[in-house]
């Protein structure tokens, strides 16, 4: 849902758009992110023995933050490759490209999960 919301933002926003137009896509992406976080944390904690829960949780959080930093870096690179801050038009182009890129990365991130086998 997060990726779908980002793609909708990237496709629907331009220099004359109002914030109201972004409300539904932002809500979709926020709901998707809120649903993913707790379930990922639970699956990490359930995958280890009780003695290793704190270590597993710490490793999970470290990789979550590292992944966020990598994602922001990629979004900034996309933004400046397709736009800039010199004008509203350039900003809009960069913003749309960054949101589309973030949405596609989010959706592509689902693919490895499809190959995880339950034990």
How much is the radius of gyration in Å? 17 Å
Q: Shape, please?
A: elongated
> What level of helicity do the residues show?
over 70%
Could you report the average pLDDT, rounded to the nearest whole number? Answer: 89
Number of helices: 4
Helices and strands, in order, run as HHHH
Unreliable residue stretches: none
Question: Strand-residue fraction?
Answer: under 5%
Q: What would you call the structural class?
A: mainly alpha
Largest sheet: none
End-to-end separation in angstroms reads 26 Å
Strand element count: 0
Sum this structure up briefly.
The chain is mainly alpha-helical and 119 residues long. Helices cover 76% and strands 0% of the residues.
Explain what this protein looks like in three dimensions:
The structure is a single chain. This protein has 119 residues and is an all-alpha fold. The protein has four helices and no strands. The longest helix has 30 residues, at 53-82. The protein is elongated, with a radius of gyration of 17 Å. The chain starts with a helix and ends in an 11-residue tail after the last helix. 16% of the residues are buried.
Furnish the topology, listing elements before pairings:
Blueprint: H1 2-12, H2 19-46, H3 53-82, H4 88-108
Helix pairs in contact: 1-2, 1-4, 2-3, 3-4
